[in-house]
Amino acid sequence: MDNDSRVQLRVLGISYSQLQSGAYALIMAQVNGPYRIPIVVGAAEAQAIAIAIEGIQPPRPMTHDLLLKITDACGVKLRQVFIYKFENGVFSSELTFSDGDKTFTVDSRTSDAVALAMRTSAPIWTTLEIISETGFIIEETTAHLKRDDTNSDTQSEKSHSDENLSIDQLQELLNKMVDEENYEEAARITKLIEQRKQKNS
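and the corresponding structure tokens:
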């Protein structure tokens, strides 16, 4: 495929899915662009991606870590992830590996592909067609984030205010952010809820 028709993506965050119980929404963002793509993933896959986002090193290797240890031992590196199809609500992806001489691709669930890419810093690509079909733009959120970046006091006040809310109130706020498609803020609140639950346990 022509490289001009491809779009690079990055992981923006994870929030609870409002469409499917027990699932999560993985939010991918267009690199140097306004589009966002939500991808529904299971709890286990969401955890694997979240661990990579936070840079956590589990005491024992998880499935994706184990796979990469095996490929590294064989001299094979993950070069890229390509989300090449969206059909019947499902994203299809392929992984490109190389040993320096030979390059090959294998099909993969998109959640697994992203989890592996997060651990290797391999680029994630998709097509303009998929971006057009599944992507959306959050102009207000982008402007809101820019304001927050230039006004740390405002962000600090917001975080401090959220800390005074109960878990139920945070959950209501999270639902509101998801309904408004403010996924960046939803991801921040999700993390705060998880921290609160861990503290109370």
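(Above: one complete record from the training split.) Strands lie at 6-16, 24-30, 35-41, 77-87, 90-98, 103-109, 124-127, 136-137.
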